[in-house]
Amino acid sequence: MTQRLSLTALVVRDYDEAIGFYVGKLGFTLTADQDQGAGKRWVVVTPPGGDAGLLLAKATGAGQAARVGDQAGGRVFLFLETDDFARDHAAMTAAGVRFAEAPRHEPYGTVAVFEDLHGNRWDLIEPKR
């Protein structure tokens, strides 16, 4: 049996604002943007070289809107693995991505926490090989 995690839903305020961040600042590819009617879209962004993506889901209702930017209760929520930490950290910093800390070297690799456009916390990580 083979299984894989293909998409993670991420609740956002606005589709186009989120596309601007993930494509424009992180360099992700917009792999799907399909109108579903009634103001809904199927929007998927994928990091370069990756096969798993984020389904950008526009918040509907007060309950979902309250979760935008805090889907993990302030913990690091998502992990963006890279093969060149210095390259990607420099590019993301130049694009205006806010890092919550300086890069650090851990036994498992080089890592720094950054925040997406809504404040969800991510790790940019280059694992030790």
Give a written overview of the molecule.
This protein is α+β, with helices and mostly antiparallel strands. It folds into two domains: 1-59, 2,3-Dihydroxybiphenyl 1,2-Dioxygenase, domain 1; 73-129, 2,3-Dihydroxybiphenyl 1,2-Dioxygenase, domain 1, CATH 3.10.180.10. The chain contains three helices and nine strands. It has helices at residues 15-24, 61-67, 85-94; strands at residues 7-12, 29-37, 40-46, 53-58, 76-81, 98-99, 104-106, 109-115, 121-127. The strands form two sheets. Strands 5, 6, 7, 8 and 9 form a five-stranded mixed sheet that branches. Strands 1-4-3-2 form a four-stranded mixed sheet. The longest helix has 10 residues, at 15-24.
Number of individual domains: 2
Strand content: 35-45%
Average per-residue pLDDT, rounded, comes to: 96
Estimated structural class: alpha+beta
Count of β-strands: 9
What is the alpha-carbon Rg in Å? 15 Å
Q: What's the name of the CATH homologous superfamily of the largest domain?
A: 2,3-Dihydroxybiphenyl 1,2-Dioxygenase, domain 1
- Determine and state the CATH class of the largest domain: Alpha Beta
CATH fold category name of the largest domain: 2,3-Dihydroxybiphenyl 1,2-Dioxygenase, domain 1
If helices are DSSP runs of H or I spanning 4 or more residues, what is the number of helices?
3
The largest pleated sheet is described as: 5 strands, mixed
- In sequence order, what are the helices and strands, one letter per element? EHEEEHEHEEEE
Kindly, what is the distance between the CA atoms of the first and last residues, rounded to a whole number of angstroms? 27 Å
User: Which CATH-level-2 architecture of the largest domain?
Assistant: Roll
Characterize the overall form: globular
Poorly predicted runs of 5 or more residues:
none
Percent of residues in helices comes to 10-25%
